[in-house]
Amino acid sequence: MQLDEQNNILYIAQGGHTNAGAPSNNFAFTTEYALSAAVLEADLDVIEALSTKTDGDGAAYKYNLPTAKNVTKADLLANDNDHPNPWGGDDGLNQAMLDPNGPVQIFSPGWRNLYDLVITASGRMYGVDNGANGGWGGYPEYEESYDATNNYLNGEPGSTGQGPNPSTYPNNITLLDGLNGTVASNGNPDPQVNNKNGLHLFSKGYYAGHPTPIRGNPDGAGLYYNGTFYAPNNANLPASWPPVTEANPIECDFQQSGVDDNAIANYGPSTNGIAEYTASNFGNALKGALLLAAFNGNIYQVFLNEDGTVATNCPSNPANNCNDSFASGFGSNPLDVIAQGDDDAFGGTVWAVTYGADNITIFEPSDYDGNDPGQCLGNDDDTIDEDNDGYTNADEIDNGTNPCSGASKPADFDNVVEFNGFKRSDLNDADDDQDGIPDVDDAFCFDATNGKGGLGDLPVRLDLFNSTGYGFGSLGFTGIMTNGS
Q: DSSP state, 47?
């Protein structure tokens, strides 16, 4: 959530329920709802002006989103054909409705999984959407048309191969024709999802590319419920159906990140927390830059042009990943990042929450105390360490990390001093686990016990993020195949 203090508007990043717009096995066949997959705006002035009410449990509240069934808990308990659902959705039958006159509205649709958003000092809004995963679910039925539905498509096209082919659509299905500035459809199927994570500059009405058929085609989207597709005229749907009154047809169309959407940069790993650096440290060199926390262990930095529309340090083609790091090698799975301004507590510092490491890392600028740390030349030299992070300039340059930033370090499994008073990165360390077996001959190069214990039991259970905390990719596996070279 982000608060616009000047206008007293609360912006809420509301995740999607699908992988690429259609119900799928991986997401329990749930469809997108009227208020899912979007940045919502809540007018706090309007909400605060409402009278205070009390619910059936005696809790005070100001505003309750209307729902499709419009039933109370007592109604649910009294109805043998229904059940009290504390979340209200009932697989979509009782989803929240989009009230065109209510204080909660869709600000920007089309976001699959926007973990965080930032309002910059100039008033611009940015966020990174976590893109669709291969094999997790496909595109909506009749995607690329005004008539997308919430039906389930066997094979989940778009998930493991190209999307639905518009040439097979019935004659009464009309393809999108350049609506809202998009390129007119040529009737070709969209390719398989590319699993990229796009950085977007957005404002009211901006479409980020993730389909929501119930908003794109409310009169025809229907609902996939409990293994059955309920067409819009199905008697099992609530009398108040559909939960959206005004169509936004662009939301029928899947737009590939960095290909046919409006992302200004793309990232390979899951990229979540976002902050603007506003402090004057580093001689103002970082002021106005965006910092992005990525699950691969990096905090990326983004430098923007004057109007904020171009990421100047990223590839000009957004389909190619941007890899410019502000910090790296400090802890597994950074999830959120906060940058403190000049007038904030600990001004100029950057704070990162590392989910996998269960930790908070604080980055302190080299000029935090006001003293000029001197110029860093960044020469490719294996005898100096200009940023004092323990690794030589040459070792950092080999790894693509920044030899002039102590926050940017290469990966180093053993993390010990072993080369002329310096640490040595995994890339340049011939024996990463210090067991006396050269890495080229060591099938367990990150395990000094060579598979015989010391790092925990063999994993038989891997939870959602597969983060057991050790081994390759935190998967728990410590052995690899080696070809001896």
A: H
8 A C-beta contact, residue 176 and residue 222: no
* Paired residues of 299 in beta bridges: 293, 327
**In sequence order, what DSSP letters do the residues of 196-242 get, joined into one string?**
-EEEEEE-TT---S---HHHHSTTT--EEETTEEE-TT-TTS-TT--
Tokens of 308: 């904020």
- pLDDT surpasses 90 at 360: yes
Q: Say which DSSP state 75 is in.
A: H
Look at the pTM and tell me if it is higher than 0.90: no
Among residues 420, 416, 384, the alpha carbon closest in space to that of 403 is found at 384
Rounded CA-CA distance 299/439 in Å is: 29
If you count them, how many residues does the chain have?
485
CA-to-CA dists, residue 294 to 8, 116, 229, 298, 406, angstroms: 30, 12, 38, 5, 18
pLDDT classification of 76: cutoffs 50, 70, 90: low
Nearest-5° Cα angle at 32, 66 to 210: 125
**Nearest Cα to 168, choosing from 188, 140, 184?**
188
Hey, is 27 helix, strand or coil? helix
**Could you tell me which of 434, 472, 471 has the C-alpha nearest to residue 456?**
471
Task: State how far the Cα of 348 lies from the Cα of 404, in Å rounded to an integer.
Answer: 17
Instruction: Give the domains, in start order, of the chain with CATH numbers.
Output: 1-113+135-192+206-255 (no CATH), 265-363 (2.40.10), 430-485 (no CATH)
Residues 65 and 59 sit within 8 Å (Cβ to Cβ): no
How many Cβ atoms sit within 10 Å of the Cβ of residue 182? 17
Distance from C-alpha of 375 to C-alpha of 395, rounded to nearest angstrom:
19
| Statement: residue 84 has pLDDT above 70 | no
